Amino acid sequence: MNSISDTSSCCAPVKDVTQKLAALSHPARLEILRCLAGGRSCCCKEVVEHLDLAQSTVSQHLKILVEAGLVRYAPERQRSRYEIDQAALAAVSASVAALVETCCAVEGANI
Amino acid sequence: MNSISDTSSCCAPVKDVTQKLAALSHPARLEILRCLAGGRSCCCKEVVEHLDLAQSTVSQHLKILVEAGLVRYAPERQRSRYEIDQAALAAVSASVAALVETCCAVEGANI
DNA sequence: ATCGTCTATCGTCGATAAACGATGAACTCT
DNA sequence: AGAGTTCATCGTTTATCGACGATAGACGAT
């Protein structure tokens, strides 16, 4: 039926999901999310102290999470606030669940 | 509780999850999974025809999915069978759901 | 035995990711 | 004003990804 190159309706969301999954596919970024868990917002330095990585590296990882839409970013000058976008994260979980549903469904109906 | 640097018990599963998420974070591989959906097994050529990519590229993507443990592989000579590992896929979904749960939980209870 | 088909792998190339140090901007405090 | 903090970005280096063509192995059919 439709290939993945169907740019009209399917490609954008798919790319969105894959970008979010890519953002989640790094241990450091998962750890960052854990650091931001519970809805509390952290500044960069907090995460840095938690992670044992260079500040610039952590900043990059945060940027990736923000660009993927998983983390919100309030650029206050001194203490930028990073905060989990819980809705976006839940949406990713739902997308993965839907994918699993699709892949595991018994196709007895029409084929 | 445990940080990500806890190499004894926590690190291996984390890496396992991130590897699976990385495998899922590419549109072509999602499309491959859709092609394998419903528990039906496909050979490489079927996927190639479905995907508009070179055969070698598809074979690589399949390999990544197999190495991540999301797809089972029965190397028959002429028509290798690729098949979704539904349990593994469900486990990924559960892991993501648990992550979201952790990240969105109100931190009153025990962490 | 030979041809055609299907796979997997190799080698290559450009692009991207991951990590770091260094730097500069902006703010707070003394 | 000046020192100290915090942060984002730049530039660099190394490693990996994504895609392809080419190739070799294995099988079925002729």
TrEMBL record, chains A, B:
PANTHER family, per the entry: REGULATORY PROTEIN ARSR, TRANSCRIPTIONAL REGULATOR, ARSR FAMILY
Protein name (Swiss-Prot/TrEMBL): DNA-binding transcriptional ArsR family regulator
InterPro entries attached to this UniProt entry: ArsR-like_HTH (IPR011991), HTH_ArsR_DNA-bd_dom (IPR001845), HTH_MetalResp_TranReg (IPR051081), WH-like_DNA-bd_sf (IPR036388), WH_DNA-bd_sf (IPR036390)
A Pfam family per the record: HTH_5
Domain HTH arsR-type span(s) in chain numbering: 4-104
Top-level taxonomic group: Bacteria
Source lineage: Bacteria, Pseudomonadati, Pseudomonadota, Alphaproteobacteria, Hyphomicrobiales
Keyword annotations of the record: DNA-binding, Transcription, Transcription regulation
SUPFAM superfamilies documented for this protein: Winged helix' DNA-binding domain
One MF term in the entry's GO annotations: DNA binding
